[in-house]
Amino acid sequence: MAKIETQTTLRRLRNRYRLVVMNDDTYEEVVTFKLSRMSVYIGLSVIFVLLVGLTTALLVLTPLKYYIPGYGSRQGRTELQVLKIRTDSLERSIRLKDQYLDNIKKVLSGNTSVPRDTNAINVPKTEISND
Q: How far does the chain reach from its first CA to its final CA, in angstroms?
């Protein structure tokens, strides 16, 4: 039964049809096409592939690619990474300087809640030799 269905499907794809474009006022035939379903499918597939190929070529080979998010030149990406590293280090140094200035203000104002380093330092004694 499957063989009969595939034969009828192939026969339907190969059946020829006539497409006639006529002038509505004079009923004159302007254009006549002899088509099959298979030729229509193939034609539409070719048009689809061409449109996808042209769109891809347009985006890859022209400067339009720089408008796509996440796409850019290699040099631009490296410059962006360097700038990000610089801003991170600047933010860190500003934070440390602010912390330092806050501690100085606390010490100068007499605030004793500033933790002090009161640990004893154990310095090893050196042996003096009398040679």
A: 114
Q: Residue 110 has what DSSP assignment?
A: T
Identify the pLDDT of residue 64.
86
Q: Which residue has the higher pLDDT, 6 or 57?
A: 57
How many other CB atoms are there within 10 angstroms of residue 72's CB atom?
13
When pLDDT is averaged across residues 109-131 and rounded to a whole number, the result is 72
Give the percent of the chain with pLDDT over 90. 50
CA distance to 11, 64, 68, 72, per residue, from 55 (Å)? 36, 11, 13, 18
The pTM (predicted TM-score) of the whole model is: 0.49
Residue with tokens 């806050």: 102
Q: How many CA atoms lie within 13 A of 104 on its CB side?
A: 6
Give buried/exposed letters for 27-66 (b at 16+ CB in 10 A, else e): eeeeeeeeeeeeeeeeeeeeeeeeeeeeeeeeeeeeeeee
